[in-house]
Amino acid sequence: MTLLDRFRTQPQKHPDPAVRLAHVGEIPLTERELIAAIAREDEDARVRKAAVAKLMDPAALGAIARADADEAVRDEASVMLRDIALESFEGVAEQDSLDAVDALTDVRVLAQIAKSAGREIVALRALSRINEPHMLASIARHAGSEAARRGAFERVRSTHAEVLTIALNAEFKDTALAAVDLVNDPGELEQIAMRAKNKNAAKRARTILREAEEREDAARKAIEVEQLIEIPPALPAPETPALVEAAPTVVAEQTQPAEAATQPARAREELAEHVRQQAEAKAAAAAETARRMAEQRHARLTELIENAVAAASDQDFASARKRFAIVRREWKDLVGGVDVAEPLGQRFAEIESQLAAREADTRESDLRARREALARMEQLASRAESLGARADLSLKAAEKALRDVRAAVGAIPPLPSKEDYEAISARLKAALAVLTPKAQELREADDWQRWANVGIQEQLCVKMEALKTVEDPEAIARSVRDLQQQWKQSADVPRAQAEALWRRFKTAHDEVWSRCEAYFAAQAGERADNLAKKIALCERAESLAESTRWIETAETIKKLQADWKEVGPVARGREKELWDRFRAACDRFFTRRHDDLDRLKKTWAENFALKEALCVKAESLAESVDWDNASAELKKLQTEWKSIGPVKKSRSEAIWQRFRAACDKFFSRYAQRHEIARAERVAAREAVCAELEALVPADGSTEGAESEAPPDLLEKVRALRGRWQQELAARGVDPDRARALDEQFAAAGVKVMARWPAAFAGTDLDPEANRKKMEAIVKRIEDLATSLAGPAAAAADAALTPATRLAAMLKEALAANTIGGKADDDSRWRAAADEVRQAQQTLSRVGQVSEAARRALTERFQRASRRITERAGGAGMAGRAGGAGRAGR
């Protein structure tokens, strides 16, 4: 079949199954012969199945259901036969339904028809073709037609097991009662009484059991009466007791008076004892019967609970409600006037509540479904109305809208209200009235277009015949394809001219096309070469698909892709196959590369997070003054940095510079740690001075103020002085700077004390008291120096320079040592030096003194201490010299 065969105008013979399938959807149901032919003869099963779905001929459907090669088509034919038999379509005649039943062979489908058929004759026809007892029993239980139920029951009444099943499970009263009447076994009757779905069957079974029990009781009582009235042989007939009572003289006349007198009394006692025993036995039997009935009732109630649970779990709510109603009727019969165990009653009430809630949900769902159906109908009506108002309406759209509206008018679903139903029905009918004439007009216009297409096809035939004179094969091929496309656009023509025009066009096409065969053969050679090239490219790409040399292989594959684009086309049917193969190989490599890159990115991200954490730690240590610990910790962080793997190249330098900057900042400070510490100590002393100076008023006045001192002034000054003493203990400040700060602190203290002298009076910070303490210490050191030097030395010392005085002291000490001076001079001078040091320490702890007084007292103390230390040093030198001389001797 050539390409041109696709342009035929007979859709049912079109080579494309999709076209034939669409054509089947457009065939009206009245074309039974055409639909039947397609259903029997089409090659594609889908087309045959679609035709079967529209076929209304039972005989044809029966043949297809028996003989079609495709199971789905056979099943569809059976479904159609079933639907025809059940009158699922409008206008199905009775004879068609009967013929459909006759054509069916599936017993289950026939049983379904016998149960559900609306026509009794159809149900009986289906029943006549069923012989299986199980199916007949099912029909007897569930068939909607009474005649069908009766007929099925009559055919299985000889099968005891099926009769019992009908009695237990029948939905209808007639067959259920008829089945119960055939059951004679008391155990089975009790089972029916407790478990029958039909309430009337359960009552009939209980009635039969009760009547049987009554008959048994009556018979038993009759036997008991006969036994009670039976007289021993020694006594007269039954009237003996009466005779004994009425005529005692007769008894007295017996030959054995004593024995005759005791026999009636003994008989009465035996009779009374027998009656009592019989009453006790009857009471025990009644109690046992009541117990057994209670147990059976409890067991049946338990089974009913299980049945209620099963009914409540049924997905079909209508079925669940129907099943639960049967259970509820029997439950009420069993519990009427009898106390039920509390768990069973509560459980049944819970199930009843669940079904009530489910019923409410079902009502809501039904209302929602009705509203949705109304929305669909309104949407359909709106769409049909809009199509009816369109000026550019197409025939296809009009016919589809007509089909949809007609189908909707014939099968309007349940709607929320009657008014909605009437309104939608009116709208649909109005839309149908508008669309029908428009569709007719469009059909007439389509007929005119078909007639016009005749002229177009004649022109196309002329053009195709004119190509016989063209020499260029490629130009011929292009023109042929263009003419084929134009022919496809004007393919619809009347059937009378279609075949002749097509043959003329095809004859010219075949003659022209034969001249292009050599050209196409050359093209085929080129396509074969291209095929070999592309296969080689595929193999090359497949060999690189598992490579791990990512960059090099990626470049190679990109070059292969560029080469692929350079290769020309290949034979039709192979292009997609080869392209899929080549692309799969490329995708395999790049997918693996992408996965590896994702893995690397994940590793880089983890490493970056670790390095960023190290940066945070290093930055937190950059300002630390705990030099040794911080230095060790930073070195440890640097070691950890080296152990962490790489990060993304674009972020590597930035994170490294951040870490390095933090480390460099600390170690730069570490190299200057002494200067920093010195600056910190200077800053601390400056802070103390600043705080002390801040206590003085802003105007700077220090005398003559009459305002009272702040209440906590003394404590603040003491605290600042204590801090100052602590800072003095921390050495490492330049002497000049330390001296300047000392002077600044002293001056600030003097200003504070001069401003509020009364606040410090009598305390360790009183300037006058502190001056007196300093003067006493200085006076004590001066007296010590005078006492050690003697009166003459004290007078002479005033005119000597320190060097001259030291030389004189050394000479004097050597002379004294040589001549044999006192042996304890060294110890006296050393003690004096210690006294000076102690005085110096005491002097440093004295509080604030005015600057002039402190300077004068300090100079006096220094002069006196120098005299002592110089003499103490000279005496020590002389002693060492004398000791050396004695050692030499």
Describe this structure in words.
This protein has helices at residues 17-26, 32-41, 45-52, 58-67, 71-85, 94-103, 107-116, 120-128, 133-142, 146-156, 160-169, 173-181, 186-195, 199-229, 240-246, 248-252, 257-312, 317-335, 342-389, 395-410, 418-466, 473-489, 495-514, 517-544, 550-566, 575-621, 627-643, 649-671, 673-694, 713-729, 735-755, 757-760, 767-789, 791-797, 802-819, 825-844, 851-888. Helix 2 packs antiparallel against helix 3 (45-52). It is built from 37 helices and no strands. It is an all-alpha fold.
Distance between the termini: 149 Å
- The radius of gyration is 65 Å
Could you estimate the helical fraction of the residues in percent? over 70%
Number of β-strand runs: 0
Structural class of the secondary structure composition? mainly alpha
Instruction: Tell me about the largest β-sheet.
Output: none
> Total number of helical segments?
37
* Share of residues in strands: under 5%
Q: Which oligomerization state do the chains in this entry correspond to?
A: single chain
Mean pLDDT: 78
Please specify the SSE layout and strand pairing.
Layout: H1 17-26, H2 32-41, H3 45-52, H4 58-67, H5 71-85, H6 94-103, H7 107-116, H8 120-128, H9 133-142, H10 146-156, H11 160-169, H12 173-181, H13 186-195, H14 199-229, H15 240-246, H16 248-252, H17 257-312, H18 317-335, H19 342-389, H20 395-410, H21 418-466, H22 473-489, H23 495-514, H24 517-544, H25 550-566, H26 575-621, H27 627-643, H28 649-671, H29 673-694, H30 713-729, H31 735-755, H32 757-760, H33 767-789, H34 791-797, H35 802-819, H36 825-844, H37 851-888
